[in-house]
Known about the structure:
By secondary structure, the protein is α/β, with parallel strands linked by helices.
Amino acid sequence: MSSMKTKRTLKVILISILALAVVCGASVYGILRFAVPKSFMLSVTEKNLLEEAKFSYEGNYKAPNDWFKKRGLYWQKTIKNNTAGFEAVWDKEVVFNTVYFEEDTDGVVLFRMYAKTNSADEPWKLIYEQDRIGAQDICYTETVATTALRVEILETNSVVKLDMMAVYNLPKKDTTGFKVSQYLRMDNTDIIDKLGDSGFSGYYDVVTDVIIFEMLYVDESGDLRPYGGGIEENFDANFAALKTIIGVRNVRIWATVMFDQYTTGADGVRAKDLDKTTALLNSKRDHINASIKAFVDKYGFYGIDYDWEYPQKKAHWKAYEQIISDTAKYTKVSVAISPWHFDASKETIAKIEHFNVMCYDLFDSRMHHSTTAEAAFAAIGNVVNKLKIPREKILFGIPTYGRATNGSANSWPFYGETVQEIDGEFVGSLGKWSNKIQTFTYKEGGMEKSCAGYLNGYAIVRDKTLFALYADIGGVMIFRAKCDSSYDYEYSLHRAIKNTLDEFSK
């Protein structure tokens, strides 16, 4: 990290690969990191306010002077139900809204930040809390005016080494064109029953692009077909209800098209057949295009979102690129991609309006899914530096569901399940800061099991939105609508995105 100057750029070093992804059904999960030796730059040129602070420390620590410049603030013992940390004190009031950390050890399990106040009743006000720091962490504290910042580390799982810390007052940005896409599963109850529901319609105060998914697939004849389950019979009514809910708000409506063909083996197991899908795209190309175009024209969709998980051979990619290029001649195209692989040409990438990057089902060494370090800094760094996707085309995926910390493919806690409506008021068990359900019960192999479930809570979603703004990418993507709480709940994840954008928009 270069030394802090009045004008500097915050440099984020991406983390190396530990293990390969594990493929399970249509989902990819596992301990996944990225081997990206290049740097990933956030657009932060503001002064680090810690340069003007004086420090005092608690706990068994070792630190050089100006450690935040030179690296190397160590807590030499693990911490359990105790407090270590430090205070940064200024000789005048400072204003900030963001704190950035780099941790070499990933040992922090619980930390809090407090700002000094002038109140005798509350001399220190809690401004931030999370369950980890990790290799990189960007923390939105809201706007704070104070003369001192206190960082408390309450629990660790190893010796802790902080490599770097910065306190910034980040400026407002021009968010014109910043997109918030949302995947919405449409069936015979999801939309019609939401008419008049402010907890659902409020989503579209922040969403700019809604993508109707798991609705359409290309069959073996090359025809575009609904998946069933009442979709075909109720689609017109649901679609009309969605447009009524959106009203005059400027929200573009997309439809996801799936390609996957399947082969049933001798053991009776049905599995995706990439070669079969490729053959279909090649042999029925004109018919497929005509079928998709007719659907777009009939309903007036803004564009088609393609989701093929995942081409592997050159032949697969050639067929995929061809259908993308064909579609781009008559409508807009977006694609859903993983953060680690998209092997299309620059010419094809130029024809795609945006990329919905699936930054979830990524487990770190603690089996936490979609953390800021893994699923923001590392994942988007890989998309920019290795996949060469232009930043303005990247929509950074934020999950509204969680995963069990044992890696089970059968446990999917929803954020909305942590919130209850009691006497007209919404009460959430995670509150403003938490991400973890201590005991999540699910079924696997006919047996009831339980494990801790890790989600993205309100605070981490605000942090990720801030990350997207200062990574200068095109926006964020929500997967998916149904898993969030009511928008009427103050800590709704859609509301977390909206609140952050409102705070930082010019």
